[in-house]
Here is the input.
Amino acid sequence: MTKHQTDFAPSGGSTVELGRRTFLVSAAAMAGGLTVGILPAEQAAAALGSRNPGQQSTGAEFTGVVSIAPDNSVTIRTVKCEIGNGVHTGMAMIVTEELGCDWNLVRGEYMPPNRNLRENNLYSKTGGLAYFSGRSTGKEMMEQLLQIGASARERLRVAAATRWGVPVDQVKAENSTLTHAASGRKLTYGEVASDAAAIKLDAEPALKPKSEWTFLGKASRKRINMQHILDGSAVYGLDVQVPGMVYATVRHVPAHGGKLKSYNFDAIKAMPGVRAVVVVDPAEGGRGLPDRVTAPMGMSATTNGPQAAVAVIADHFWQAKVALDLLPVEWDAGDGAKWTTTQSIYTALGEAAKDTSRGNVLRAKGDVDDALKSGRRVEMEFMTPYQDHFLMEPLNGTALVTADRCDVWISTQHAQQAMYVAADETGLHPEKVHVHATYVGVGCGRRIYGDDVRTVVAIAKKMAGKPVKVIWTREETTRQGRYRDIAAAKITATLGDDGMPKAIDINQAASRPIGRNLTDTPYQFAIPNFRGRTKPFATNIMTGPFRGPVFVSNCFFLETFINNCAETAKLDAVEYRRRLLANFPDKGWIKTLDEVAQKANWGQSLPRGTAQGVAIGNWAMATTQDGAPVPFSGSTVATIVTVEVSRRGNVAIPRVDVAFDLGSIINPDAVRAQMEGGVIMALSSSLHEELNVANGAIVEGNLDGYRAMRQADPLMPQEIHVHFGGNSGHDRFSEAGEPPMGPPPPAFVHAYFRATGKWITRKPFMKYMG
Amino acid sequence: MAFDLKVNGKTVSVDADPQTPLLWVLRDHLAMTGTKYGCGINQCGACTVTIDGQAARSCNIPAAQAVGKSIVTIEGLSPDRTHAVQRAWAELDVPQCGFCQSGQMMAAVGLLARNSKPSDADIDQAMNNLCRCGTYLKIRAAIRRAAELV
Here is the structure.
């Protein structure tokens, strides 16, 4: 019965031997296929090859971002990981626009964060600790990639001109071919790539204006990793095979923040394959980063600090899992135990929202208290629960820690953050940490901060010299989430004689108390008295970013409330919004609304029990210092949901229409995919998903208790129509992944009200319908 | 204990507890990682393979039960990604993150083997796998397309 150490089974304690093996270092494979002395990391790299974008191929490098091989193939390395949003494809497309290469010859790899660090953060121009996560089209990143493409193209032209002895301006570069028209001579990019890579230009070429683009925003491109998905060869973190690795599965204290009291290794020691039990103790802490080194996403106890845990290590995952299920463990729930039931949390949260005696005023204009004294009153209370990301790929990672090096293979949204977390945990300088990012079985915010990396490395470092693959079971992944923030709001308005709001007073409480798409609404320009207040509310349950953090709850609150105002005033809800938006200079909002209303045939006569509802929202809109919305920023999405309610009360969603204003876009089908998927995830989470709490611990662990929308769900939207006519063409290229998470749920609620006369004010809707 | 399995037309020897779920034998003992772990309780379908031509969720089948039967995984669906289901998936650009898609494709293979022209209702009932990215409508369309391509 021990803590703070590693228990080894008699048969499993071979770390000394293995440690020595990893130091028998010779990087080169010998002739005849002998592979004596190759590091497991290098063996793994060779085996994984191009199936894992974290492994590196060779070719003539123009910069670390672009290399061209003699066979004319082009490799584009990106600093962002592919989580399903197509970022890997999008970034390669941006380079291709200026490089003028044949898209069919383009393949993708990741820029290893370690290389970026060693080369002085060259590939992450937005700063040493730039965001390695997210979309492809951030302005600075886009300009950098376009410039890299243009520069490589010019060097190829110079190389061809030199070889032919002709002026550069007579050489055309197109479709991976260099042509000298006068003499009819041609070379492929691959044929001059090594010459070109050695050329330094006197001046960087100017970029084409957006109006002259021939590739971006024109035809859609399929994802560049499609081939590997089709035959199952794409390597996700879960699929990494490192020679000599063992498997671990982990159990954390069920009540977040609690402690390990005891465990009994003797009970499982003799089980087949079992090698050790390893304890992760938060009190031990990480060994720290070097002076003046900070992680891009920071370090904190709840974002990426370790939670108390035990892990069983065995020869195979299944052996570890069976043994862990039988391992006697006692936990101390700690302070979290006071949250005895979900209702105890909801009660406290609801009271916090209604408490107007405190709260941070995010936005105030006019005299709200006075204006609320007269006029037709509308008042609603809302609440949204903890929800899990329920990532398809359970949390996992593989690490090999030695005295002077740490290798980590992991599905991460932020390989750079992962490197710093591993450095912090091991005490190694980040230059000695090699993160081999893989494809990611969806991210949605869960894999940014690196708590998973921390746990993997904390376990592996206790098996020094031995590669350890750590897999969270589904139940553990769910119960150790960093969930969607809970939020509640009380909103009150009075309507003027024209039916429009005279005053709106918003009081919100949330585990992440921000006013995005609530207190910064552009509607306020048409509302003379407006106030938005918020306050923090915390339990021991940890939350984190989840595709549209707080935006999703706030959009539901605000849009449902506005729909109620319109219905109370007996005014059309689309026209109501046009009036509320009339004073806002960004006409992309009304254009988007008009587009979706027209395409969904808003206002049509529908059979009894069938109705449409509408909502609009903006993700990532900028705000002024005093909390006002900034026009022409963020991603605006408008939705109309059609709902059918049968006489027996059965609900179906025959159709959803979506329009958007992202400014400009580069890959229409990728945008369509994000909109369609976002609608489904938004409706799944709003209709069905809720995590319950008992004595500080999450109850649901798997799909037998946590309902997520699947193919046969009676509420699956039967059609989703994505319309492009709302896009303004504004110069920003705003993201497409998070914005469709907001408006579909309130549009559903509106349609449900119009079909049944009943407002739903809490999620999950299924619990409060009928 | 060693036993033989027939996977993608080849007989392979496995040294494992025969009660180990087929999923983990495929992944950890045979290094065939195209078949995914998602829930482990027969719900999400990420682990779907075909056994004697029928779609089966390998997380819930002890390897011993698959002895003597013909197992096909995503790796064995075709030598060159030209099975009708793979072609349809590529044509409609179905995947987003891709993690569930091996299981989705194998479930589609099982469906089309017993119903060559499935209706939308047939598809919904037979599939019912989880896709957190929400590619369901594309999956439905791709199965209809695969039915044409067979």
Observations:
- Chain A has four domains: 10-39, 42-230, 237-333+395-471, 342-387+483-768.
- Residues 1-5, 10-37 of chain A have pLDDT under 50 and may be disordered.
